Structure formats: structure tokens, C-alpha cells
Amino acid sequence: MRINRSLLNWGIFLIFLGGIPLAVDQGWIDPDMAGELGQLWPLILVGIGLGLILRWTPFAWFGGAFVAATFGIIFGAAVVAIPDEGISNLQGIIPAVAVAACSGDDAGPASSSEGGPANANVFELDATLSCGELRVSRAAGADWSVEADHATGDAPVIDESDLDGATAYLGLSQRGSDALPFLATQAQGDWRVEVPETAVISLDTPLNAARGDIDLGGGPIARLGGTFNASDAVIDLADAATPLRASVDLTLNASDVRLLLPDGNLAADVTLNASSLTVCVPEGTALRVEPSSILSSDDLANSGLDKANPTLWSTPGFSAAGDHIDLSITSTVSSFSLERPETCS
Q1: Are 156 and 70 found together in one domain?
Q2: Which helix (H) or strand (E) holds 225?
Q3: Are residues 119 and 68 in the same domain?
Q4: How many domains does the chain have?
Q5: According to a count of CB atoms within 10 Å of the terminal CB, is the N or C end of the chain lower?
Q6: What are the counts of helices (DSSP H) followed by strands (DSSP E) for the chain?
Q7: Contact between residue 131 and residue 188 where contact means Cβ atoms under 8 Å apart
Q8: What digits encode the pLDDT tens for the residues 301-331?
Q9: pTM of the prediction?
């Protein structure tokens, strides 16, 4: 069985990143001792050396895994050492480090484009990108299109499925480079995707060490999902329509995401691990928030919501509302902020 070293390293990093604070919270490790773990940084150099020595052996993966574990321990110790209100200041560091693994600030040097007629009723987009930027917007018509700047030989791999003679499913991926880089370099890609103007959209956007700018305009949506690893994104659904109850399902690992929700009928389930999430909800929207957290912070006490019980917050009169938003937040060593309508942008 072939080991995907990149995913292995990031899995190890996240285990230690969350494991150290959890061990302190449960009393398994003394907080003072955990705070001293940051002094283990020289082990990073040891791990790099091991990686070089073992590079051409069956144990070549061990050096990277050792470095990943050390980084996780150091960041986990930093989380323990800082006060709760300072957690949000730490989370932006990790996406910045991951994006730095991408070579250069510009995508290229090659470019490509594809497009065609899309199904007028339903359209599903699945776009997975590592190192770069994904921008998704509505087209001014019934076609789909993809324009990309990318490394030579790494044009987006396009997978299509038709319904009634037009594309109803569009899959975008990279040629063998969808893995998240860890202590390695990878050329950036810049993908600009347009989806049909009036079709009901389902969207899945896994991002690895990348940036996302997703704006689904005023058209209808059915589902939005994604796993963001060491990434940052803005997801703008503020003007989207929800003719049927829509769903949002996101997992953030060491990422920073801003989510603008519509005044509609929607259920959102977001899991945060060492991440930061800002949610904006339009004025007058019926909203219920159910948070569950470990070593995390939120501003629900200052959000204007009523506290029904220790784990449930809602807008006044929520129980009598028709269309409404249910927002479930599960967070570990993370921060969650609910913005007032007048500050949404």
C-alpha cells in the first residue's frame, strides 16, 4: 500500500495540535509543562536531517512525520500558553505557513480554458485545489466556463456528466498534485470558474493551502460543502435563493473562513479544528445556533441572541418563524464570531 506522505504529515500535525490542549484540559498534562514544549523546536532540524538520510529507503516518510509532530506539539503548546481571547490571533499563522509552501506569488506560466452549455435546472461542481486560488461565480447565462493559470502540464482535469444534452456535473482536479504540501514546494494554480446563472447549484470545494472566493450571486442553491486544510476563504451566499431547504457542510482544519448566509431556509453544520470562522446573517433572519466547543472562543453572549439553554442560542421569536437558519458549530481550539448585519461586507 502506498502512503500519501503529505496527508499523513498533516494528519499527524493536526493530531498533536489538538491533542496537547485537550490533554491539558483533561488534566493529563500539567499546563506549565505543556507550555515548555515550545522549546522542542530544534527537533525540527533533527527531523529534516532524518528525512535526508532516509530519503531513498522504505522509511523515507519518517523524517516528514517527525517534523509534522514537532510542529504540532509547538503550536499546541502555544495554544495552551496564550489566553482564550488571543486564540484567534494564532490561527491565521498556519494558513500563512502552508501557503508559503507554494512556490512564488503568481500562478502560471501556462494557461487554459474550457466551457460549454450547462443544464438549466441543476448543476453540481466539485473542485479540489491545492496551492493557489479558486474563484467561483455565476455566469451571465446558461453556460459553464473554467479559466486557469497553472504550472506546465497541470491544467485542471475536467470530468463532465450530461443531463438532457448539457453538463449537469463538473469535476475539477489536479494531475497528481491534490495533496496538501508539507515542507515542500508546489506551483500555484489560479482557477476561475463560472456556473450557470439560474440553475440550482450544488458545490463541493476541498481546498489545501489555498484561497477561496465563492460568490453564488442571487441564483438558487441546494448544497455547499467543503474541507479546508490550512486555507482561507470567503463564501458569499448572502443573495442566494433557497427554494427548498439548503444545506452547508464545512470542515475547517487550521483555516480561516468568512461565511455570509442568506435570509432563507438553510441548515449549516461546521466543524472547526484550530480554525477561525466568521458568520454574517442578514437582519431579520430567524437564526438558531448550537455551539459545542473545546478550548474555543465565541462572541454569542454579545450577539443579541437569546440563550435558551447552555448550548442553544436563537433570535427572539424563532419558534414561530417559517424559513429559518439552523447553525451547528463544533469547535476545537478555534474561534467563532457572529457578525451583526450592519458590519457584514
Answers
A1: no
A2: strand 221-229
A3: no
A4: 2
A5: N
A6: 6, 23
A7: yes
A8: 888 888 888 789 999 888 777 889 999 999 9
A9: 0.76
